[in-house]
Automatic annotation (TrEMBL):
Gene: nasF
Lineage: superkingdom: Bacteria
A GO molecular function held by the record: uroporphyrin-III C-methyltransferase activity
Domain Tetrapyrrole methylase: 10-220
Native source organism of the sequence: Roseovarius tolerans
This protein's name: uroporphyrinogen-III C-methyltransferase
Amino acid sequence: MSRTPLQPGTVAFVGAGPGDPDLLTVKALRALQQADVVIHDRLVARDILDLANPAAQLLNAGKEGFGPSMSQDDINGLIVAQALTGARVVRLKGGDPTVFGRLDEELDAVSAAGIDWHVVPGITAASASVAAIGQSQTKRGRNAAVRFLTGHDMKGFADHDWRTLARPGEVAAIYMGKKSARFIQGRLIMHGADRATPVTVIENASRLDQRVLSTTLERLPADLAEADLTGPALTFLGLAPRAAEAALVQSKQELA
Ligand code: SAH
C-alpha cells in the first residue's frame, strides 16, 4: 500500500457484488456516491451504475470472455490517467474484485504511478449462487474445503487437480465454466468421478432474471446446451438445490 502517495488522485477498487444493488456493501455505495469517475466492467448492472454520483463520469472498460475488448494495458493506462487528473476514481468490478478480477495488474499499475489506492471487497458470485439454492459452501461431514475454479485461463481451458475434484463430497464453484463444461466433465469422469454427482448452474444469481439448472455431471453438457444460458453463470460441482436434494433423499428412502 502506498502510505505516502506522490500523486493527488485516488483509486478505490470496488466490488459491485453479483448484481442485486441491495448486495452492495455500504462502503461500496459510499465510494460510488463520492466518485468523480467510475470505470466499470461489462458485468456491472445498470441499476448499480445508477447509484453513482450523478456528476461522475462513467467509463466502460468491458471485457468479455475470449472476445475482443479493451486490452488490460489500456485499462491500466485509463485508470492511471484518470487518477492523475486528481479524480476520485472508482474501479468497479463484478462480485469481489479479488476473485478472477485481474486486480493485481491494475494494483501494480496504480502503485507504480505513486497513486493512493484501496480495495473494497464485494459479494462474490459463488456466495450469491449458493444463497439462491439454499445450500452452504462447506458442510460438516461433507466437505471441509471449497474451491473456486476458472473454466478457462489465458491458455484456454484451465487445468486443475482433477483427481481431488473427482472425489465424493467435493464442492467447487466454477467461474466462467459454460464453454468448458464438456472439458471439465470429461476430465472429472476420466479421474473417477461419479457420473451422478450433482451439478447446479446458476445464471444471473441474485438478479431478477436468475435461473437455476439442476443437473448431474453426466448430463451437464447436454442440459447446458439445451438451457441456452446467455447471462453470467456459475457452475457448482457437488451441490444440488436444497429442494431437489430433499426429493432425492426421499425417493431413495421410498426405494429402500
Ligand atoms: N469477480 C467476480 C467474478 C468475475 S469472473 C466475482 O467475484 O463474482 C466472471 C464470472 O463470474 C462469470 O463468467 C460467471 O461465472 C461468474 N458470475 C459473475 N456474476 C454472476 C452472477 N450474477 N451469477 C452467476 N455467475 C456470475
